[in-house]
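User: Earlier you gave me the apo prediction for this protein. Now I'd like the version with S-adenosylmethionine bound, so I can compare the two side by side. Same sequence as before, with the ligand SMILES added.
Assistant: Got it. Here's the input I'm using:
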Amino acid sequence: MLTPPTREFDFNQQDFEKIRKLIYDYAGIALSPAKHDMVYGRLAKRLRALNLKTFGDYLKVLERGDHREMELFTNSLTTNLTSFFREAHHFEILGDYLKANRQAGTLNLWCSASSTGEEPYSLAITACEAFDSLRPPVKIIATDLDTNVLEVAKAGIYAAEEVDKLGATRVKRFFTKHPTGKYQLVQELRDMIVFRKLNLIAPDWMIRGPFDAIFCRNVMIYFDKPTQLKILQRFAPLLKPEGLLYVGHSENLYHAADLFKLRGKTVYELARPGLSTPAVLR
Ligand SMILES: C[S@@+](CC[C@H](N)C(=O)[O-])C[C@H]1O[C@@H](n2cnc3c(N)ncnc32)[C@H](O)[C@@H]1O
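And here is the structure of the complex with S-adenosylmethionine:
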């Protein structure tokens, strides 16, 4: 029999089950039993920072209701992988929508799991290109549960390797060189987006629709089907009758067929547009 490798911190199955329950109850994130090592790796730095010896001691800190530690715990367990113009076809569809609705006044977009900001800035660039202006009539709200990524997103500073992939024309038009050698989004683009913390499973989102588009990409995969359905039920009345919901390439809304129907390429429209209620606060 193989001897398990010696670990810096004591982490038993009961600790893992408690952590699974905590992150599920707080963020809706359903960690599979296979994530034992991932959880250890992600949280070990928190134990080190707090000078604790065991996960049992760390759980006591969380169970005491330490809000700041709960935030850092959550930030450690979220997965934030993203990139500019990820699933590029979505931005072509959005650009066409914005052009077709250019007479409609201000257009409102919600990026509901915005991570480090590449996704909402891709929305902003798409809007600037659709209207050929750095001040298009488009407002973007970008939200995420993870407070670390929101800070990165607000700063709008990205590595040259990442930004260069957008091509010279976009780099020249939408970025300035930052003293660190990285690139920063120009002020006009940063001003188009309001970033704020929002937990998709919180009972009150305090967000005002109706939206022309809701981007909810590559986050539903972390939730179980009942949680997904509850969120989708709350998205539906926040969309304009002609508005579109964008989900990730590996996500589908078959279980919410009475709410959304596929328009194509993981873009959904309301199944019953007449029933959407405008200007609701959820
Ligand atoms: C893999 S990233 C996806 C980023 C981006 N939407 C994309 O597709 O490139 C998932 C994001 O969802 C966020 N997230 C996880 N649970 C959440 C929740 N309950 N409410 C809001 N955001 C959440 C994470 O913090 C993370 O930034």
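For your comparison, keep in mind: The pocket of S-adenosylmethionine is lined by residues 27-29, 78-82, 86, 113, 115, 119, 144-146, 149, 199-201, 217-219, 222, 248 (CB under 6 Å).
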